[in-house]
Specification:
Blueprint: E1 2-3, E2 6-7, H1 17-68, H2 71-74, H3 76-83, H4 86-108
Antiparallel strand pairs: 1-2
Helix pairs in contact: 1-4
Length: 119
């Protein structure tokens, strides 16, 4: 920018123009850096949530298998009878809900609903 043929940063009436421009560029760089840091933190948080949901889902399915017992691996009739009990129904519902939350999070990053186990 010029003022009567003199660059503004050299003009006696506008001594801080260059400093102001440098400060605004510095502020923009810091703002972009902050946005990148927030995005990076968001990715880390999303990955942590995914890992936590995966662990919880696997633990819920493991609890279901433990409730059925080792005979459920070999005897399909025994497994079917145990799958029909209320305790295994509750464990299955919890495991499937956690699976749904994980899949929803992987697709959108936002859980669909909150889970209330008291219902």
């Amino acid at each position: 920018m010029h003022h009567y043929g003199v660059p503004l940063h050299q003009h006696p009436l506008y001594p801080n123009v260059e400093l102001t421009r440098q400060q605004s560029e510095k502020d923009e760089d810091e703002e972009v850096g902050d946005q990148l840091q927030l995005e990076h933190d968001g990715v880390d948080a999303a990955e942590d949530l995914d890992a936590t949901l995966t662990e919880a889902m696997r633990a819920a399915y493991a609890a279901q298998r433990a409730e059925i017992g080792p005979l459920g691996y070999d005897d399909r009739i025994y497994r079917r009878k145990k799958m029909a009990t209320p305790a295994v129904h509750a464990l299955t519902a919890e495991a499937e809900h956690l699976l749904t939350l994980r899949e929803t999070h992987r697709l959108t990053g936002i859980p669909a609903v909150t889970y209330d186990p008291a219902r």
